[in-house]
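so the lab meeting is tmrw and i was supposed to have these ready like two days ago... anyway. pasting both below. for each one the top line is the aa sequence and the line under it is the structure tokens. i havent really looked at them closely yet so no promises
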Amino acid sequence: MASISQYVGIAAGVLTGISLLPQLIKLVREKKPENVSIGMLTVLLAGLSGWVWYGILKEDYPIIVTNAFSMLTNVVILILSSIYKRK
């Protein structure tokens, strides 16, 4: 059975993972990347990469999965921002 700390960790990871979804949805709907901070997303991507690496080293799948999802969302925002800026 999972401990309280595992539930807290999973909940925190899920919330972190979905935190960029509102930004992504807004970007897709409006196609206006002007308000997206590329610098913040780049630093966040570096941090998330570190968490995934840490999760791999610790063999902690909740850390790996939740942070990998956050990385994916972050990368999609960066790609869409780049595409929409060209238009």
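ok protien two:
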Amino acid sequence: MEPLFVLFLALALDVLFGEPPRPIHPVVWIGKLTSLMERIALIHGARAQLVYGSIITLVIILAFALPVYFFLSFLHNLSSVAYILLTALLLKTTFALKELRRAALKIKWFLTQDNLEEARANMSALVSRNTQDLSKPELASATIESVAENLCDSFVAPLFYFLLLGVPGAMAYRVVNTLDAMIAYHGKYEYLGKFAARLDDVLNFIPARLSALLLVIAAYLCREDGKNAWRIMFRDHSKTESPNAGWTMSAMAGALRTRLERKNCYVLGDSNNPLSPQLIGSGIKLLNISALLWICLIMGVILLAFIA
């Protein structure tokens, strides 16, 4: 039953305290190490970048997942109580449901007040794109898109790998997802992040589709348009560059009966409901119900494994 206690305590830590202080947050240190290794990547040519980027990815995965594995193995033999407490604390650092909700609600508040300047300034907590020229509907769209995509990246996927591989698995996923966000971009060092990006695609293949299904079920439970969520998900999921993000974003667009659009990149859903701050609130509600469904499912799997 230890995994159940660990999961429950990690979720409680997220609800009560949110994110740990930056100086001790593993994701911050993943980012620092990635930035350091990226700065010394004075290499040219696609093949050399690909090889170095693959090395960066594997080294950082090992640098964070292996110490967690050995530390927790040692602690498990030393004290069950200390093991559960510290395992839960480490697990908490791999997901960020409360922070995702907080960031989205902050944008919703600024948009409600028509404070577009502050909304744009705070969008960096949710998206990496340039938001300085985004209109009010575009800011609402970007927020809803981020809520949908991060249901997978920031909650479903880390706990999926916790269920399969324990906290070291969840930590390894968080490393890959962070690397994908930091170095998997187009430009001078495009191939530096190719390996991390493809590995992130592989790791998110199942969690993304699970997350989309959770959103469809949540739409039915929240009296949103579950049937339309299902239809739009299958119609539009392939319109995004990412093979995974389109599933959750199109399911969200369908559930809210709105159109989510990133200029010159994709258009998901139909514009039955105009984008507004109120739709962000509806998207957050779907996020909450989807997360609750996922928690119940994981706990059920753990209990079944214990009984068996």
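from a quick look at the 2nd one: The beta strands are 259-262, 266-269. The first helix runs from residue 2 to 17. will dig more after coffe
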